[in-house]
Amino acid sequence: MRGDALIRLTATEAVALLRRGEIAPLDLIDAAAERIDAIDGQVNALPIRFFDRARDAARRLGGARASRDRRPGWLAGLPIAVKDYNDIAGQPTTYGSPIFAHAIAKATDITVATLEANGAIPMVKSNVPEFAGANTFNAVFGATRNPWDLGMSAGGSSGGAAAALASGMAWLAMGSDLGGSLRIPASYCGIVGLRPSVGRVPRGVGLPPFDSLWVEGPMGRTVADVALMLDAQSVQSTHDPLSFPAPRPPFTEAIRSPKQPRRVAFTPDLGLGQVDPEVVAICRTAARCFTAMGSDVAEATPDFTGAIDAFQVLRALLFATVRGELLANERERIAPDIAWNIEKGLKLAIAEVIRAERNRAALYHRVADFFEDYEILACPTVATPPFPVEQRFPVEIAGEKLTTYIDWMFLTFVVTLTGCPAISIPCGFTRSGLPVGLQLIGRSHGDFDLLAAAHLVELELGIGAEVPIEPRRCAESNEARGR
């Protein structure tokens, strides 16, 4: 099979071919390397590459061809992209920061090691914003551009991962999510990103072990691919006290025998703020797929009162905990938005933290009550379509002025507070040809049923085959899609 055909395979298709011995990991690594060399100069999604390491790993799995029993784990030798927040021994981990521009990891973190044990072969690291954020640019590698329109942001913080998937440079990619970093770039790049339940995927030692805001999760071109990767990520680890054992049955069974949700709620805005009218219209139309499938759909939302302020406080506290020691000596080398966020955390009063924790607890129980009546909550993933890559963040939505660099992310970050699983799936395109994502939120620990519902919507919408694409400008995007 030729390289241009290999890069168009879904991860599920590629793994099936690997298992049958019809292709080998080396074939996929070579195809990805050729694709990356050809187009990443335009997209800038994968700045750290270690193909020789990947080829060595592929040879250890059996060289050119191997029988099924020599293809380990869920992924059977599939090459993947690792986010540049995760450590791989002997490779750089820059966090997108000039402070760590030359840092080399001494050990592989548990999230990567789990995937390797399940047959993944890391081959590249994806670009990220400095430490966190939802527009992928930094002073080390520059900006990642959206393949649908190279003048637009790919989102973040898993922006490099999403852009690589959308443009055919990887089959699966690691991501992480604090305020929407798996879901926002998935929406902007027309791929699928899942924020799993807290503890579903074990995390490494770089995060506070009892933090429940930051999760690791899968990104792929289809819901089936994401389910496959989640199975490969799901283990219990003694280094993550919130982690729990792999599920039975596995998540891939949710795709094979998807269960239709009985009752679904749709909300345009979670009752919290302005959302671009075009985005609302696209997502409302997509949510009607549930009606076509026979689900009862109503316009409803839990009460998210106090969630925005609570998240701002708890995010700042996490920033101060993880990066606070850098501020005194490295402030000039830290991006101003990140410095502001760290400083906000260092200056928090105990009364602010107590109020945020109380508001979060009350929200959790309101959401749990809501999910006694509904199985899925649907809403737009992002309140605004992709914006120019040179712009650090949107400053207004539908005429409403924004005050901080994360205000525009409210549709994802308030969901973070609930601990519920949430997935972004592509659901349509703006008039200018840019992707829009529909966010589906499931019950606490309801990852299996959420994946099943997302898969059914994906099938109903029929736009999953839109990627991978050739990087283009928006005018070219409109022409390619017949607009």
Shape: globular
- Do you know the CATH architecture? Alpha-Beta Complex
Q: Strand order of the main beta sheet, please?
A: 8-10-9-16-17-13-11-12
**Individual helix count:** 18
CATH topology: Amidase signature (AS) enzymes
The total count of strands amounts to 17
What average pLDDT do the residues reach?
Answer: 95
CATH class: Alpha Beta
Please tell me about this protein's structure:
- 37% of the residues lie in helices and 16% in strands.
- It is α+β, with helices and mostly antiparallel strands.
- It has a single domain, classed as Amidase signature (AS) enzymes (Alpha-Beta Complex).
- The strands form 5 sheets. The protein has an 8-stranded mixed sheet with strand order 8-10-9-16-17-13-11-12, with helices on both faces. Strands 1-3-2 form a 3-stranded mixed sheet.
- It is globular and about 55 Å long.
Structure, briefly:
The protein has 18 helices and 17 strands.
Q: What are the defining features of this structure?
A:
single chain; 483 residues; alpha+beta; Amidase signature (AS) enzymes; three-stranded mixed sheet; 17 strands; 16% strand; globular
List the helices and strands and how they pair.
Layout lengths: L2 H4 L4 H10 L4 H19 L4 E2 L1 H10 L17 E6 L26 H8 L2 E7 L10 E2 L3 E2 L1 E2 L2 E5 L5 H8 L5 E6 L5 H7 L2 E4 L19 E6 L2 H11 L18 H5 L6 E4 L10 H11 L1 H4 L3 E4 L7 H17 L3 H4 L5 H11 L3 H21 L5 E5 L15 E2 L2 E2 L8 H7 L5 E8 L5 E8 L4 H15 L12 H7 L3
Parallel strand pairs: 2-3, 11-12, 11-13
Antiparallel strand pairs: 1-3, 4-5, 6-7, 8-10, 9-10, 9-16, 13-17, 14-15, 16-17
Helix pairs in contact: 3-4, 6-7, 12-14, 12-15
